[in-house]
Amino acid sequence: MSKKQKEALVFVVNVGKTSKEKAENETESFLDKSKNIIKQVMERKIFMRPEDIVGVICMGSNKTKNKPGMENIQVLKDDLLVPTWNLVEEVLALEGTEKTSNWVEGLHVALQYMKENCMGRQHIAKIMILNDFQEEEDIMEQFSAGTIKAEVLDSVSSELIIIGKNPLDEAHRKELNLSEKLALHVCNMVDGVYEEIDKYFWETRFYKNPPVNPSAWKCELRIADVKIYTSTYVKVTEPPPFPSWKITTGENSVGYPPDGGNDVKKTRELVDRYRDITDPEEAIKGYKYGGKFIPFSEEDVEVTKFQGTTKSLIVRGFVKQEDVSIEYWFGKGCHVIVASLGSERQFYSLLTAMRDLGLVAIVRKVYCANSIPKMGVLFPRMQPGEPACLVHVSIPFAEERRVLKSKPVKTLAKNLSEEQKQDIEDYIDAFTLPPNEDGEVELFNPGSFCDPCKQYKWDNLSHRALNRVPLPPMDKALLNLISSPESLIQKCKPVVERLKTWVEPKVEKPKEKFEIGHKIEEIDQETQQTEENLIRAAEEAEHEMKRKEDLFKEISEATTAMDEDLLNEM
Fold first, then answer.
1. Widest CA span of the chain, in angstroms?
2. Residue 170 CB coordination number (10 Å)
3. C-alpha distance from residue 274 to each of 130, 277, 295, 310, 413 (Å)
């Protein structure tokens, strides 16, 4: 993967008179929605793109602070800065005013601001305008789309993103006012993007890894003596782990310097079995097996390194696709392999033959020289609207395979009646996700929504950075990602009621209630009975001991008599 490109983003937000108004059946004004969007974008930059820089410009402000001198337009910071939580708090503290301005002048100020502060920096310049486009027509008539286009194209290469109140699609073109028509025209002329504010809010609601330019793994695909030059790209892989929790010790940390005045210092010492400190230079690394230490020097490590392989992708054979069971697929993800320039004819001929014959290729892959070889399987994929490619999935060696023997499960299907079988089918049909217009399942589509647990952690970090109150519960939007749709729940209720009739409810006898006096009397009876048993056991033990003593006395007397008889005979 190539390095992420840095961004310079300037927000142009309307805080004027019209931005305070709330539409019917809505609890937030346009300004509130705009502040939430700016907050969400800055949060993601703080967490995931800390090298990006941002700026904020307010239209319709009570203050006038900008180089071109446009009235009622305020630049919050003189320079583009790395987003901080203090800047987020300033944005959230913005309040609506009674002043007015227009987005064309705001765009002019943003372009000049971007040119002054972004010139010479290796950043992608972006301008985001958040406006409800309620300007008066006599004011907007003095501007032309051609003039605005020329100013945008002549400035620093800036991408234009406009966030508006209403949709500007074909179905709503007749309802647009002059300001909205001008904004849409400018967007089309400069290849900008227009988004409805409610829709864009949900697009920025979830944390997503920023896109990067893919870097190809180029290697020739060898089939006997045939070489096909290919490029491999990562298609699916494991997501990066959540960043580890770290304790900061900088001068800007809370509680720095420590109360004692002395910093905590960590030292590393090597000790032997007698707790004597040993010089690290005299120590040899090793392993412990079976209670015995086995030294392993650096020379031993060099000798045991795997060597002798070269970068390669070699086909070992072809098998039927159904012979490669899904249980053998493993690895961190999959890759797509496409043809490099000059090998298209050979590559597509191979794909067509594999598809027509229903075959897949078993390959041996060595990523780089002296790396461990791995086995994989190549599936041909030729779909309309997609580039023809081979999909590479790893498969295990024999030693890596684990066979799990499952216990036999007694099925109840044979004991079900026809009516009960029909209820099961109805339950499955009721909980089946409905298809969309294209015939594909839209809800819970793999890769279409983010990990709710990881999103919740990001939300908690953001909340703790801005507040000192207890953490809130998980947001409803995150819960909806892992909850069954309400429509399916309502649809399956009649079927669930029928399934409940299968189970015969167990009649539980009510527990007897005892009065306090009755409980005490019962406990006394049990205690008395226990004492009697102990006394009886003690008497029996005493009787047994007495019997053993008498028996021992008899044996002793008999032995003494025998000894005396023997002495007399001698």
1. 151
2. 7
3. 70, 9, 18, 48, 67
State the Cα–Cα distance between residues 165 and 133, nearest whole angstrom: 8
Query: Residue 533 and residue 525: Cα distance in Å, rounded?
Result: 12
- Looking at the predicted structure, is the pLDDT value of residue 366 above 90? yes
Cβ atoms 118, 8 nearer than 8 A: yes
Reported as type and span, the H/E element at residue 369 is none
Query: What residues contact residue 228 under an 8 Å CB cut-off, 6+ apart?
Result: 220, 221, 222, 339, 343, 346, 347, 350
User: CA–CA separation, 8 vs 82, rounded Å?
Assistant: 9
Q: Are 94 and 138 within one domain?
A: yes
Q: Which residue has the tokens 């539409």?
A: 23
Of the residues 149, 173, 203, which one is the last residue of a structural domain?
203
Predicted pLDDT of residue 564: 55
What count of other Cβ atoms lies within 10 Å of the Cβ of residue 99?
Answer: 18
**Burial state string for 65-93 with b = 16 or more CB within 10 A and e = fewer than 16:** ebeeebebbbbbeeebeebeeebbeebee
pLDDT band at 469 (very low <50, low <70, confident <90, very high): confident
Q: CATH no. for residue 363?
A: 2.40.290.10
Please give the radius of gyration of the chain, using alpha carbons only, rounded to the nearest integer: 39
For 364, the domain range is 313-400
In terms of pLDDT, which residue wins out, 315 or 437?
315
Same domain, 389 and 443: no
H-run or E-run covering 270: strand 270-271
pLDDT of residue 499: 84
- Residue 559 pLDDT exceeds 90: no
